[in-house]
Amino acid sequence: MSRMTKQKRLMHDEIASFSAFFDASELHARLASKGLSLATIYRFLNALEEEGSIHSFVCENKKIYSLHQTNHAHFHCEKCGKVKHVSIANVDFLNTLVEDDVCHFQIELTGTCAHCKRISLKR
Ligand SMILES: [Zn+2]
Ligand SMILES: [Zn+2]
Ligand SMILES: [Zn+2]
Questions:
Q1: Per residue in 53-103, pLDDT tens?
Q2: Ligand nearest to the CA of 112
Q3: Using CA atoms, how far apart are residues 56 and 49, in angstroms rounded to an integer?
Q4: Could you tell me which CATH class the domain 3-66 is placed in?
Q5: What separation in Å is there between the alpha carbon of 92 and the centre of ligand 1?
Q6: Which of 107, 105, 104 lies closest to 76, judged by CA?
Q7: Are 54 and 67 within 8 A, CB to CB?
């Protein structure tokens, strides 16, 4: 097996072991001991993204990836400034809204979080 093929197999196996989201440095941390550079990992992730086998999102100014998840949603609270992750299970309705094929998407929601809502009700 060539060095290139061997590296690709290592990266594939590692990516498959993440159940949800990961970023390039997390993947690198798991593979650094096997001699893979961060540059190699970036190249590989870009290639996978181009061929559509992984999806990318932006989380806290970081690019994150997932093999399985096809959406990433944040809820920003205007009162306390906290950001939390929201999971959206059924996204079929999106495909009926556009004539193009939706692969994956990201949503940013803003409002008052449950915690701040409780506090304001007590006043
Ligand atoms: Zn995608
Ligand atoms: Zn996020
Ligand atoms: Zn809040």
A1: 999 999 999 999 999 878 999 999 999 999 999 988 777 777 788 888 888
A2: 3
A3: 7
A4: mainly alpha
A5: 15
A6: 107
A7: yes
Could you state, in order of their start, the residue ranges of all structural domains in the chain? 3-66, 71-122
Ligand 2 centre and the CA of 106: distance in Å?
A: 9
Angle at Cα 97 formed by Cα 91 and Cα 103, nearest 5°? 50
User: Over 90: is that where the pLDDT of 122 sits?
Assistant: no
Please state the CATH superfamily assignment of the domain spanning residues 71-122 in this structure.
Answer: Ferric-uptake regulator, C-terminal dimerisarion domain (3.30.1490.190)
Q: What is the mean pLDDT of the chain?
A: 91
pLDDT value of residue 103: 87
Check if the beta carbon of residue 108 is closer than 8 Å to that of residue 76: yes
Neighbours of ion ligand 1 (CB under 5 A): 55, 103-104
pLDDT recorded at residue 97? 86
